[in-house]
Amino acid sequence: MNALSYNTERAQLYIPEYGRNVQNMINYAKQIESREERNLAARAIIDVMGQLNPHLRDVEDYTHKLWTHLFIMSNFEIDVDSPYEIPEPESLSERPKIMNYPRNKSKYGHFGHYAEKMIKEASKITDEEEKEYLTEVLANLLKKNYLVFHTQNVENSAIISHLKELSNGKLKLADISLLKPTNSILKQVGVTPKKPSKKHKSKKRRK
User: Fold this and answer.
1) Which of 188, 158, 156 is nearest to 175 (CA)?
2) Count of CB atoms situated within 10 Å of the CB of 65
3) Strand ranges (E), the chain
4) Distances from the Cα of 53 to the Cαs of 18, 43, 57, 120, 162, in angstroms?
5) Backbone phi and psi for residue 101, each to the nearest 5 degrees, phi listed first
6) Is 62 helix (H, G, I), strand (E, B) or coil?
């Protein structure tokens, strides 16, 4: 009776998604002396790997990816003729470069950088009818952005004041009723308004 073999005692799986059978096939192919037969075995293994991972077909150059996986799983020890350039082990272990996070300066963070940028552009418009329309749109945008962050009521006069400030006095909403009601905006963005906390006053005991 054969003794049980535990995974911890078996050879390393470099890419577990392909399973131990594929790893064993690659290990065997590495030992084939004939280069021609070794190449045939490698192509057969690539076909099996493709069948086991059909989702890779949606990846650009998926065949190239399969060959790269083959070399990784062989610990770069299989000597075969690849249709693609054989990757260097060092290139696969390199850490990606740290990307600089875009830091946009906003006077009021709750309004958002792009809203302030749109206000700046709208301030340059000379057509009065178009400017009037955009003023209404941007005022409601500021109110919506504010409520997404704070989810509580905000004075319409404050929104109009901020719009005027951010546009250097060039965008002025004359009719305050053009601003949408707070509850309507919160319902639109799927936010439940916060209920004001009730302060319980302690009752004094009468002597």
Assistant:
1) 156
2) 16
3) none
4) 8, 15, 8, 51, 55
5) -75, 130
6) helix
Q: Identify whether the C-beta of residue 23 lies closer than 8 Å to the C-beta of residue 14.
A: yes
* Token output for 27: 């290990």
CA 147 to mean position of chain CA atoms: 24
pLDDT per residue rounded down to tens, the chain (207 residues): 444 444 444 557 888 889 999 999 999 999 999 999 999 999 999 999 988 877 777 677 888 999 999 999 999 999 999 999 888 887 766 666 676 665 656 677 778 778 888 888 999 988 999 989 999 999 998 888 888 777 677 888 888 998 999 999 999 888 888 888 888 888 877 766 556 555 555 445 554
Cα torsion angle, 87, 91, 92, 93, sign: positive
Distances in Å between the Cα of 85 and the Cα atoms of 32, 50, 80, 93 are 22, 19, 11, 17
- Assessment of whether the complete model's pTM goes beyond 0.85: no
Which two structure tokens, joined as six digits, stand for 8? 């911890």
Give the three-state DSSP class for 36. Answer: helix
Single-letter amino acid code for the residue at 68: T
